[in-house]
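Please decode residue identities from the backbone states below.
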């Protein structure tokens, strides 16, 4: 009992030195959390089989975004989130997972915008918008960075694919480092330590986990919490979700300790839909097991890399105690909306036209508006020569084409969110209008 009390007092007095009164910041702190490859059905509030109590609680007391879109794959979503622009605006290399430099130095990013507003900025986790240090996050508005410059890594190995120039990727402030521990644990530890530093300005923490992307390697304690799941591969995946959820809980507890929970706006989203099934394994440093039927996009059709709803409609929410009441927003929102939304909320005026594709969605989050406009949303997945998969949504209607030689499809998402009934042949006039809108958007893309 004495040891527990002593430990508590030590923690309390250690934290006192880091507390900054909420009233000392004129703007809220911003915490953006991104999971990797987490499908619609891979979170507890969408499927009670999944154990994610911390995320569920944040969503339950925040604004659930039940029609939150991203891009069909990791790099494109991160580009959209950080710049407020569709990744195809920067060139075909941004429309798929890529280790190339995503966008030019000097591009306005969420980090550089918030830095201009006086924020301390940090990225802790996965970057994957330029996998060499010269293209790293510190070049784009982040004061500090830690984690992987490239994409997925071995969870204990911390290396990217072994047959590429980007194998060594784990770094702190663009200097490669060697560490021991599971990636999820290391990211959580770094985030907590960063939050508990003394500071005299608001902070922006971008926290993109490597989890729950393959390779999946989890300790028995996380597997045990999911022993109710019979399917071995699904149980392993669920354990990775539970582990990441624990890490989010550690970060939220740190916000409590430093007195900044109520002054911190939290945004959570996955970067794309789940793979679902048929992962071959052996893509990353071992162990990297093959998996089958291990993740879920819920009722939606399609998977990661596709422009059906399952590939890009993901679990997401916003949480800000005392400022945003609990509600569920069904209106379409996209990753490109977060930069212009924060700019509007914080009173930021760009020095020149940033050519944002996103919109200010704060009225939807706050309840000032209860419905969305017939805005256009646009997707391109594929390189310069193929533009393999494309889609456009206006209001409740969506067209898509799965492959350059594919046939255009049309869906009324208002009544058919699972995209079971293709209406292309029965509504040619609507197809014509939506294809015209698609060509207008495509004309804004950079071709090379």
């Amino acid at each position: 009992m004495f040891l527990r009390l002593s430990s508590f007092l030590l923690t309390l007095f250690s934290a006192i030195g880091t507390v900054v009164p909420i009233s000392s910041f004129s703007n809220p702190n911003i915490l953006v959390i991104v999971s990797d490859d987490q499908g619609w059905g891979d979170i507890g509030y969408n499927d009670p089989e999944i154990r994610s109590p911390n995320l569920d609680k944040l969503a339950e007391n925040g604004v659930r975004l039940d029609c939150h879109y991203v891009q069909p794959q990791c790099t494109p979503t991160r580009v959209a989130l950080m710049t407020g622009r569709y990744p195809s605006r920067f060139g075909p290399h941004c429309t798929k997972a890529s280790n190339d430099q995503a966008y030019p130095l000097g591009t306005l990013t969420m980090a550089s915008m918030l830095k201009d507003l006086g924020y301390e900025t940090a990225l802790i986790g996965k970057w994957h918008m330029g996998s060499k240090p010269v293209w790293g996050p510190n070049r784009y508005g982040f004061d500090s960075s830690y984690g992987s410059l490239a994409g997925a890594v071995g969870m204990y190995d911390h290396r990217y694919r072994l047959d590429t120039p980007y194998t060594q990727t784990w770094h702190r402030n663009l200097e490669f480092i060697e560490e021991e521990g599971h990636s999820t644990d290391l990211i959580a530890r770094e985030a907590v330590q960063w939050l508990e530093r003394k500071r005299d300005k608001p902070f922006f923490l971008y926290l993109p986990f490597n989890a729950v992307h393959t390779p999946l390697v989890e300790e028995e304690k996380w597997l045990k919490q999911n022993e109710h799941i019979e399917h071995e591969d699904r149980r392993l995946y669920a354990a990775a979700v539970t582990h990441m959820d624990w890490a989010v809980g550690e970060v939220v507890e740190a916000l409590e300790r430093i007195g900044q929970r109520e002054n911190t706006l939290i945004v959570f989203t996955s970067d794309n839909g789940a793979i679902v099934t048929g992962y071959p394994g052996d893509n990353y440093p071992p162990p990297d097991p093959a998996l089958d039927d291990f993740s879920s996009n819920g009722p939606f059709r399609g998977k990661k890399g596709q422009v059906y709803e399952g590939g890009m409609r993901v679990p997401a929410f916003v949480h800000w105690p005392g400022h945003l009441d609990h509600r569920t927003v069904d209106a379409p929102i996209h990753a490109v909306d977060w930069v212009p939304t924060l700019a509007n909320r914080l009173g930021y005026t760009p020095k020149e036209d940033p050519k944002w594709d996103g919109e200010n969605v704060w009225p939807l989050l706050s309840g000032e508006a209860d419905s969305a406009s017939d805005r256009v949303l646009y997707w391109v997945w594929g390189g310069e020569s193929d533009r393999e998969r494309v889609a456009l949504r206006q209001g409740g209607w969506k067209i898509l084409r799965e492959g350059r030689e594919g046939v255009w499809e049309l869906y009324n998402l208002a009544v058919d969110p699972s995209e079971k009934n293709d209406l292309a042949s029965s509504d040619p006039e609507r197809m014509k209008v939506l294809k015209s809108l698609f060509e207008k958007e495509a004309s804004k893309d950079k071709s090379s």
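Observation: The chain has two domains: 27-366, 376-442.
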